Amino acid sequence: MDLAIQLDKEMALRVQTVNQFVENYLSEMPLPQGAAIAELRKSMLYSATNGGKRFRPVLSVLVAELLGCPIEKVLPFATAVELIHTYSLIHDDLPCMDNDDMRRGKPTNHKVFGEDFALLAGDALLTEAFMLIAQNYAENGFLMGRLTQMIAEAAGIRGMVGGQAIDLRAGQKQMTKEELEHLHRLKTGALIRVSVEGAAVIAGAKPSEVESLRKFGEGLGLAFQVADDVLDHGEKDQDVRSFTGIIGLEGTKKYLEEISTSTLAELHKVSAEAPMLEYLISFNTSRKH
User: Fold this and answer.
1) Per-chain mean pLDDT for the chain
2) 201 φ, ψ (degrees, to nearest 5)
3) pLDDT of residue 120
4) I need a surface site. Which of 66, 70, 85, 258 has the fewest CB within 10 A?
5) Of residues 4 and 215, more confidently modeled
6) Which DSSP category does 129 fall into?
7) 233 pairs with which residues across the strands?
8) CA distances from 55 to 40, 170, 218 (A)
9) 22 found inside a domain
10) How far apart are CA 61 and CA 14, in angstroms?
11) 76 in any annotated domain
12) Which contiguous run of DSSP H or E holds residue 272?
């Protein structure tokens, strides 16, 4: 069997594992009685189970496997990060933000449940992420505290929310390559980075391994954004917010190669062989969508 096909199948199995955990958790978590609470859970489930590649939680699973850690230990953390990602998508789609009507081929949350419940669903998903950490890592207070701090850093003003603020206020200002890189490291890269770093911490990796995997996660997150800009070239205005609009198509392709090479080098500091994680890098550089 072709290696890429085999790796695709292996990846699909891990996505299925994550999907099952996310759906089971949200469906079965004990909640107060009431029709409004039930409707809010339905709104949360609507967006949290609406497909998606599950890139962030699968990354956590793959890092755990690389380090010989049972995936059951990282699934709560991986799901916490995914709930935060889902909340961000719900809020991004709201009229006050991107004002989108469709997400992954289905009406966006606020089109189904209204803006008020979409806002609350996002709030609830964000908060539930910290509940997952508290419930599942309480036996190790130091670990629970560290994971909480890492997720808060990645999700809040120091990471995703801060990046979103930069994006909203940038307007049509011409960004430099460095400014755009900073924006994406915060807005999209922070949650990808913490998916890798958190799994490494849970697995008991050495400090040097955690640092290398953190850099691997940072590089992978940036590489996916750069690859998106390459794919979007010619299909939209290449404005001040894309790498191709700033350094050109060929310059962006070269930049993608540089990031991918350095990202792979960080991974190899931890393991000379990591086929699933290596595949993510090679897949990104050659993907068509």
Assistant:
1) 94
2) -65, -45
3) 98
4) 70
5) 215
6) H
7) 236
8) 25, 27, 14
9) yes
10) 7
11) yes
12) none
CA 222/CA 228 separation, integer angstroms: 10
| Cβ atoms of 195 and 203 closer than 8 Å | no
Does residue 45 sit within a domain?
yes
| CATH classification of the domain holding 170 | 1.10.600.10
**Res 243 pLDDT > 80:** yes
Whether 287 is in a domain gets the answer no
Cα atoms found within 13 Å of the Cα of residue 33, Cβ hemisphere only: 0
Residues with Cβ within 8 Å of 204's Cβ and at least 6 positions away in sequence, in order, are: 67, 69
Q: Which of 159, 166, 141 is nearest to 85 (CA)?
A: 159
Range of the domain at 29: 3-281
Tokens 């700033």 sit on residue: 246
Looking at the predicted structure, is the pLDDT value of residue 51 above 60?
A: yes
Q: Which of 151, 143, 276, 287 is nearest to 216 (CA)?
A: 276
- Phi, psi (degrees; rounded to nearest 5) at 101: -95, -25
The number of folded domains in the chain is 1
For residue 19, pLDDT over 90 is answered with: yes
Tens digit of pLDDT for each residue in 195-231? 999 999 999 999 999 999 999 999 999 999 999 999 8
Yes or no: say if 265 and 220 are a contact pair by the CB < 8 Å rule: no
Find the mean pLDDT for residues 117-124: 98
Question: What dihedral angle (degrees, nearest 10) is formed by the CA atoms of 139, 144, 145, 146?
Answer: 130
